[in-house]
Amino acid sequence: MARKIAYSGVQPSGGLTIGNYLGAVSNFTKLENDYDCLFNVANMHAITVEQDPAELRRKNIETLAIFLAAGLSPEKSILFIQSDCPEHAELCWVLNSVTYMGELGRMTQFKDKSKKNEDNLNSALFTYPVLMAADILLYNTNLVPVGDDQRQHIEITRDIAIRFNNRYGETFVVPEALYSKEGARIMSLQNPDQKMSKSDEDENATIRMLDEPNVIIKKVKRAVTDSLAEINYSDEQAGLKNLFNIYGAFTGEKPEEIANRYSGQGYGVLKNDLGEVIVESLSPIRETYNKLMSDIPYLEKVAREGAEKASKIASKTIDKVYRKVGFR
Predict the structure, then answer these.
(1) Beta-bridge partners for 146
(2) Annotated catalytic, 312?
(3) What is the pLDDT of residue 117?
């Protein structure tokens, strides 16, 4: 039997955080042996907010290097930069014709992002779920590894695929979400009610995968907790709970068990230990990343060969779609 296909993309805007690593990239490596995987640097999504072109080009390669440093293999998975495959934009345009304004307007992330980008409220920000659907449907994707906050995007992708199939005949595989059974959402270190974000203006709120050890230690020590001075794993102590969730996500332990181990100790002890756990986990990735970034021709080769493999699959989908809608 043919293996199922898994697909995901990561935007190159801003340095990837430990939230991106624990919620996405680290899980990608676990899929390689069981699925035919495609992972890309989703730079077409990145321009929904204004980008410096030279910086975006640099981030494309840096994000690809992070994929490799985290353990992804170009021999096992197709790794590529999204914009190198024009089929994504081609399919997006066709899918726009079977996507309704109302369903796009209900997207929670559009509402959130539009508040943050009132001075650049462009149409791409409104229609990017259609591009996301095109990303997934291009490759006959069966499974999309996502966090729970991406549930809406999978639902609209499924709706678009079913609607197109009903109108033009069976064309697309209707994908399923693959939700991680491990770990919890990683929240901001300064505002534990919000998800950790690579676009957060407060640098102390976010730990990035490439942060130096001393920077990681400082950020953990500055993390918001509370004045109760009691070790508990509870919603009432959201900052502390977030630290235990991060700890457990890196070590594989249950956060509740970690909390029990630190019972009767101060927050400082926990923060010191957590900082060391994060540093120990990320240091090999940062070291490998630095080596990869010293060989840009190799990274460009990986991107080029990955795009060629991806386009070979995507072009077949485009040909089928164009014939179905009457372009060919």
Answers:
(1) 179
(2) no
(3) 66
